[in-house]
Design brief:
With about 100 residues, the protein is mainly α. It is built from one helix and no strands.
Length: about 100
């Protein structure tokens, strides 16, 4: 029951192609050519220059993102904590109702 059953395939079901024949090739060595001098193309994009105003804007934007993400995470944690506390209070109320009903009988 717990042993795996390996399927068997008596005959192949697809097209069977013969293996490709690889023919050996001759290796010919040539004399190395003189290396051409390397010339680098001019940059197509201008370089980014960071001005003091742009640096302040980047720092301010990063700080804002961190504060917003932190506030969202803290609010989610608070929502989970409040939900857990309310479920616990409901459980206590239901438990006390059940025990008081059992004592009346």
């Amino acid at each position: 029951m717990f042993r795996p059953k390996v399927p068997t395939m008596p005959q192949p079901t697809g097209l069977v192609t013969p293996p490709a024949v690889v023919e050996p090739t001759a290796v010919i060595q040539h004399a190395p050519a003189a290396p051409a001098p390397m010339s680098y193309p001019a940059p197509t994009r201008p370089t980014v220059q960071l001005t003091p105003g742009a640096a302040v804007a980047l720092v301010g934007g990063g700080t804002a993102v961190v504060l917003v993400v932190g506030a969202v995470l803290v609010s989610m944690l608070l929502a989970v904590a409040i939900t857990g506390a309310s479920v616990a209070v409901c459980a206590l109320v239901i438990r006390s109702l059940i025990t008081s009903e059992a004592k009346r009988r």
